[in-house]
Amino acid sequence: MRGRPKIVRLVSEEPKFKVFKPQGIPISELDKVNLTVEELEALKLVDYLDLTQEEAAKLMGISRRTLWNLLTAARKKIVDALLHGKVIYIEGGHYKIRECGECFRYRFRHGKHCREGIE
Questions:
Q1: Three-point CA angle 14, 93, 16, nearest 5°
Q2: Are 69 and 9 contacting, i.e. CB atoms less than 8 angstroms apart?
Q3: What is the tens place of the pLDDT at every residue in 6-31?
Q4: Are 113 and 49 in contact (CB under 8 A)?
Q5: Which of the 8 DSSP states describes residue 61?
Q6: What 3-state class would DSSP assign to 19?
Q7: How confident is the model over 52-76, as pLDDT tens digits?
Q8: Which residues have CB under 8 Å from 34's CB, separation 6+?
Q9: Distance between CA atoms of residues 33 and 65, nearest Å
């Protein structure tokens, strides 16, 4: 194996919805875009929950550079799917579910991201 081993990225939960597609066209007729679970987590933390990239990276157990790469890839995939009418599958990646104690400080500020649901 070449290079450094990939660090497992921490995510709060498995996605509830895993497929999004344009209305009225069968999936079999559409091209596919694959969004990984950790790319979705990065988007959620930064774009939805308004955490800084530093906070989000720390919460996911990765560097800010890695978080930036996840965000860039995820945004590009989503825009491609929206512009070109592609199916978005949310699957795969290199992640594990974060234990609730690992996000203790962030729950009280942004409770809605924690799977414990503390608001």
A1: 20
A2: no
A3: 889 999 999 999 999 999 999 999 99
A4: yes
A5: T
A6: strand
A7: 999 999 999 999 999 999 999 999 9
A8: 77, 89, 91, 92
A9: 23
